[in-house]
Amino acid sequence: MITPLIAHVQSDRLIWKVERHRKYSIKSAYRLSLEELIDSSHLHRLGSWSGIWKLKVPPKVHNLIWRMCRGCLPTRVRLQNKGVHCPTQCVSCASGHEDLAHLLFDCPFATQVWHMTDLWSHITVYSSTTSVVEAIFWLVDTLCGEQKQLFVVVLWSLWKHRNLKVWEDVTEGCVTVVEQAGVMVTEWKLANIPGG
Fold first, then answer.
1. Using CB atoms within 10 A as the burial measure, which of 1, 13, 42, 166 is most buried?
2. Residues 87 and 163 both lie in one domain
């Protein structure tokens, strides 16, 4: 004879208390393990991360912006700090040290690019007292939709320009960098038209 534990229960069911909808997912289990089982507080960085992931741009741009804001892009100064022997001067202007601030905002080449995009007035918010990461988060939060899109794809295009020069010795002009960014935005919009 079977004795029920609770008389009013008709059927058993599994409930995953971590989610509001009570359904198990690997994502929620992963999040639970990070929050409860592993001390990951040293990995948390302040900033509007959701603003970056909500941008209407290709995934490769999301990934690059995330890497910029996490401080893990291999600029020449960062490589030197990690023990890699390489020159530290900027490949675009051959002066200064190629850190993220110089590469994206302070380099004369980058400055010309920003002037051509009509975003320079917004970019000047960045100063030597503000970190590049704070500037990126602030600009992603405050620019309007299309400006925000253009801003992050220009960051991607500047990084691509730098890599072409370093790895293939190909020199692109400012116009090419801006045009590539514009084409990327246009192609992304066309590819993501509902019903298209």
1. 166
2. yes
Is there a domain that residue 3 lies in? no
User: Within 10 A of 180 (CB to CB), how many other CB atoms are there?
Assistant: 18
Closest CA to 150 of 139, 160, 161: 139
Q: How far apart are CA 17 and CA 28, in angstroms?
A: 10
Give me the number of domains the chain comprises.
2
Closest CA to 61 of 151, 196, 122: 151
78-114 pLDDT, tens per residue? 999 999 999 999 999 988 789 999 999 999 999 999 9
Residue 196 maps to a domain: no
Q: Is 183 inside any structural domain?
A: yes
Please, which residues bridge with residue 97 across strands? 89
For residue 196, pLDDT over 60 is answered with no
pTM, two decimals, is: 0.78
Q: What are phi and psi of 65, to 5 degrees?
A: -65, -40
Domain that holds residue 85: 49-191
